[in-house]
Write a structure and sequence with these properties.
Layout lengths: L2 H71 L1 E8 L3 H4 L14 H6 E8 H11 L2 E4 L2 E4 L5 H19 L5 E7 L7 E8 L7 E7 L9 H5 L4 H8 L4 H28 L2 H7 L8 H7 L10 H17 L15 H40 L3 H19 L4 E7 L1
Antiparallel strand pairs: 1-2, 3-4, 3-6, 5-6, 5-8, 7-8
Length: about 400
């Protein structure tokens, strides 16, 4: 075959290949154009979704802030709950046929409060609903007051429903630990579990309790003289440990006094000794039949029942309390108060020693290596502040979540 003829064949084959490549390029360019057009069309919608989400979250945050403010400051005009001593004392609260009462228990043991803020009710509820956890066992410290927190939860739920209706979901939580990390605690919870992205607002409220030990009291074992004496003793490490133990014991005593007062109101119980507890005819009709001549005041019965629960069931001590007594002897009040106080002090002290042991060991090692008393006092001060914060958390935490 002539050369020219071969050349023309090769040339035509190359043109065919070039045309195929050109067609593929046009397809790719057209695809990119379509993608770009789609992006231009969809971009406003995508951006709008982000704006809607941002606006929704901002709106939820604003509502959350507003709701928390109303809970902190709004008042409840009428608040009522009923004590439940009968469940502990075994009081036979029966209504006689001639009684005009509809609810004997409510008549005798109801508590009414007026014009209280939600934060006041929550604070009181946290104090009255303390419980302790030992492994998987939960024990309420004061079972007869459990209805206070139940009624508080109902009031908060009703307030939130009135305020936001079905527009938002919500969760309200209030938590308190009298001693940080200790097994005694309380909580009030309203609403379902909140998602991670829920708007969240926090606040701290004070509680109607008194912590009788100050920071100065906890610092008392430490001063220039005691630190100097410890460092010049045969065993500085041991002496410094004793000083920290003394500070923890002082802090534990303050915590024990507060918790004991909540569980066992000594002054009130002491006031019942030698006091005539009157029972009017209407109350007596609830508690006894017409043929019964011997009766015990419902106040006395409820107190004896609660004392028995607290000292024997809650703290596991062994004290004989006759729930058929007609009065309360001052000796038994003093005995029970001392036993509960000592047990609380022991348990809290053990908890605080365990919680701060490693940090105290480190502080003592650094104090022994320090060259001057000023540095040693500074190291001790850091640990004493930590002990004080454990013993006095300074209020309860409130969290409100909206989504």
């Amino acid at each position: 075959m002539p050369i020219s003829e071969n050349y023309h064949k090769a040339d035509r084959s190359g043109i065919i290949k070039d045309e195929a490549a050109f067609s593929t390029s046009i397809d790719a360019i057209l695809f990119l154009i379509l993608v770009s057009v789609s992006a231009v069309i969809l971009m406003p919608s995508i951006a709008a979704n982000g704006q809607y989400h941002s606006a929704s979250h901002t709106s939820a945050q604003d509502m959350d802030t507003y709701l928390l403010n109303t809970i902190m400051s709004s008042t409840v005009d009428d608040f009522e709950y009923t004590l439940k001593p009968a469940e502990l004392a075994g009081i036979n609260v029966n209504i006689s046929e001639d009684s005009l009462l509809e609810d004997a228990e409510k008549t005798i043991f109801s508590k009414e409060q007026r014009h209280r803020t939600f934060s006041d009710l929550v604070a009181e509820g946290l104090v009255l609903s303390l419980y302790q956890k030992d492994n998987s066992t939960t024990k309420v410290l004061n079972p007869m007051t459990k209805m206070q927190s139940v009624e508080t939860e109902k009031q908060i739920e009703a307030h939130l429903e009135r305020t936001i209706g079905q527009r938002y979901d919500y969760r309200f939580e209030a938590h308190w630990q009298p001693v940080t990390g200790y097994k005694v605690q309380s909580e009030i919870v309203v609403g379902e579990e909140a998602p991670v992205n829920a708007a969240k607002q926090k606040a701290r409220i004070s509680l109607p309790v008194t912590f009788s030990v100050t920071k100065d009291d906890i610092y008392r074992p430490f001063n220039d003289s005691t630190i100097y004496a410890a460092m010049n003793s045969p065993d500085p490490d041991d002496e410094l440990h004793k000083m920290f133990n003394d500070s923890i014991l002082i802090a534990s005593t303050g915590c024990a006094e507060m918790i004991t007062e909540i569980v066992f109101p000594y002054e009130y119980l002491s006031s019942l000794n030698g006091t005539e507890i009157s029972v009017d005819s209407e109350q007596l009709a609830c508690l006894t039949g017409p043929d019964t001549q011997n009766y015990s005041s419902p106040v006395i019965q409820s107190v004896l029942g609660c004392m028995n629960y607290t000292v024997n069931d809650l703290y596991g001590l062994t004290v004989t309390i006759d729930q058929e007594e007609q009065s309360i002897e001052l000796d038994i009040v003093n005995t029970v108060n001392t036993l509960i106080m000592d047990e609380n002090k022991r348990l809290i002290s053990e908890h605080m020693n365990c919680q701060h042991a490693d940090d105290i060991d480190m502080a003592i090692a650094l104090m022994c290596n320090a060259t001057d008393n000023s540095s040693r006092y500074e190291l001790a001060s850091t640990q004493l502040d930590a002990i004080y914060r454990t013993a006095n958390p300074a209020g309860a935490d409130i969290v409100l979540m909206v989504w």
